[in-house]
Amino acid sequence: MAARRHSLTRVLSTLAAVVVVLCGAGAVAAGWAFSRVGTDTVDRVDFVRPLAVPPLAPSRVDGQGRRVFDLLAREGSRDFRGDGRLTRTAGFDGDFLGPTLRAERGERVVVNVVNRLPEETSVHWHGMRLPAAMDGGPHQMIRPGATWSPTWTVDQPAATLWYHPHPHGRTEEQVYRGMAGLFLLDDERAAALPLPDRYGVDDVPVIVQDRNFSRSGQFVRTRNMFVGTGVLGDTMLVNGTVGPYLDVTTERVRLRLVNASTARLYDFGFADDRQFDLIGTDGGLLPRTVRTNRIQLSPGERAEIVVTMRAGERVTLRSTGPDLGAGTFADRLAGGRDRFDVLQLRAAEQLAPSPAVPDALVPMERLDPASAVATRTLEFLGRGINGRSMDMDRIDFAATRGTTEVWEVVNAEDTPHNFHVHDAQFQVLTVDGDPPPPALSGWKDTVYLPPHRPIRIALRFTDHSDPNVPYMYHCHLLWHEDTGMMGQFVVVEPGQSPGRPPRHGDHTGHD
Ligand code: C2O
Ligand code: CU
Ligand code: CU
């Protein structure tokens, strides 16, 4: 009896010991995994490669006066770090990223997109006002080998827009491999301002992307078990260049910052905390120049800044931890404590003079929220918006062309999301009830959604309607978009009712 009780005690205490050891191991593993969260490359980047500047895409004007571009989506490979390890990539016209398309307001454009990938893709013109059938979302899929030739008239202010694939469920993967490029728009108003505007000289694209590389040099999209935002990389690419520097030859240089990362937010500034001029955001130039030393961008957002340089100096563009507003723990998991040295600016010994940046830029008509014909609430939660996950066959609502709407967008979770809408640039009315900060004072198509702080925006769908073909609105953290945090709306004429999205298997383009 006593012996039996003894062995029972022994079994129990062994079991307890096993549980303690397992829990301990679990805690150690969790602690280890947590400690692996977080990246800091400040003062650890060798700026040894000249910044690549995406070439301007050649174009021609056809018999109908349309500006015609060709864009070839294809696979490729590149040795990013100069160590002989080739990364399998994809890009437009080249191995990684794509050429910069450029058009004037008022021009009619055609882009012949040829898909040479072994899989379907689409090309979406992020920030562009255009007919839904030309938008390049998940309803305009291009089969392998096919060509899609969307055409539209550019009718919006000068801006830094971009293009990228948008296949439902595969956007993160295709963008991560390298499929993205810029689409710059020009207009007379912007051209009349004394701003640096020589492409690649004093007006330079800065497409920022974070990547992880495997031992063999491949891009890896493994997610840390604690990170719900998507893939956060530890290596910075700027226009595809690792460790980039830019030779500056003028007193002032304009940087077109594009956050083309799939999940990461950045808070850009300079290593010496110098002030710079923020002159534009997603939809174009601001009404007034904003003097600041920081600009935060979530995935998909853009900012145009002008930096003043002293002859002979070197200064580093740096991202410090973005304020995600999610609390200490969640912020850290989502990259809110990460720091990166991004790009080194190297001023020549002699700098050509540049005119001062004007205070007043372009006039902006304010949308009147009192004239809104509809007010909508969009709640970002779980794997969807307003409790529904993306469904290609469901139109979530219809907006009427020519009317103003007010949308209240709220991130109902404790982790980061952002909001992007197709076909329109919007104005931010309030952030959690307060007037927007200066960086949100211009036209926007993407905005960060800090947890539990509603953002009210006003928007107007002016030019195009189609009761059947939807536009998208979604979180631009691409893993979230791919897993259902996206909805669809149509723009209808007054009195018209929404129709039905094209059938699933439908493709666009021709072989
Ligand atoms: Cu930049 Cu719907 O995307
Ligand atoms: Cu878009
Ligand atoms: Cu999200």
Question: How does this structure look, described?
Answer:
The protein is mainly β and 511 residues long. It folds into 3 domains: 142 residues, Immunoglobulin-like (Sandwich); 150 residues, Cupredoxins -  blue copper proteins (Immunoglobulin-like, Sandwich), CATH 2.60.40; 124 residues, Sandwich (Immunoglobulin-like). Helix content is 11%, strand content 38%. The chain has 5 helices and 33 strands. Strands 14-13-12-16-21-18-19 form a 7-stranded mixed sheet, with no helix packed on it. Strands 1-15-23-22-17-20 form a 6-stranded mixed sheet, with no helix packed on it. A hairpin with a 2-residue loop joins strand 24 and strand 25.
Low-pLDDT segments: none
Find the CATH topology of the largest domain: Immunoglobulin-like
How many strand elements? 33
The name of the CATH superfamily of the largest domain reads Cupredoxins -  blue copper proteins
Bound molecules: CU-O-CU linkage, copper (II) ion
- Share of helical residues: 10-25%
Going across the major beta sheet, what is the strand order? 14-13-12-16-21-18-19
Q: What is the name of the CATH class of the largest domain?
A: Mainly Beta
Roughly how many Å apart are the termini? 85 Å
Helix count from the secondary structure assignment: 5
Computed CA radius of gyration, to the nearest angstrom: 24 Å
* Coarse structural class: mainly beta
Mean pLDDT: 94
The domain tally reads: 3
Which word captures the global form?
globular
